Amino acid sequence: MRFEMLISSLLAFGLLAGCTEEIGFGSPPKSGATLFAQNCAICHGANARGAGAAAVNLEQVPPDLTLIAERNGGLFPSDDVLAKIHGYGGPGHFGDMPDFADIDTGENVMWETQNGQKIATPRALVALVRYLEGLQR
Ligand code: HEC
């Protein structure tokens, strides 16, 4: 009897732990900087300027992500950057750049496009775009 109770409480605990993990309860949302360090720095470099450890194995040199605005006439093309990180075009959409459509999809936030449309978008993707925007020089 005691043993059964122990098992059922363990099960209940396991299930609860599973649920809380799924909705991200108890783990604060990751910042753009953390997401970048964990998912992008390996190719784009810790400072986003293009020389991550894995960059040497790629056919394409990962671009310097602090110069996106400069390459675009001084404007940060946030919709385009979001689309490239998300990978709207599907796997292999953008050369050696992986797609991150499934990154940390716990929660959606409203993304306002450059022409004012609002689209529910994974919070992590928005955090990454804002982080990159802040790095422009
Ligand atoms: C496996 C290596 C790799 C990883 C990991 C990677 N990238 Fe890339 N990324 C690339 C390459 C290579 C390109 C250039 C693709 C091209 O020009 O066709 C690129 C291009 C980009 C661009 C387009 C830049 C521009 O000027 O238009 C953005 C934005 C970008 N990456 C952001 C990210 C973010 C954010 C992450 C992490 C969530 C990430 N990348 C992870 C290799 C990588």
UniProtKB/TrEMBL annotation:
Residues 27-136 form the Cytochrome c domain. Keywords: Heme, Iron, Metal-binding. PROSITE patterns: CYTC (PS51007), PROKAR_LIPOPROTEIN (PS51257). One of its GO terms (molecular function) is heme binding. Pfam families: Cytochrom_C (PF00034). SUPFAM superfamilies: Cytochrome c. The keyword Cell membrane does not apply. This is Cytochrome c.
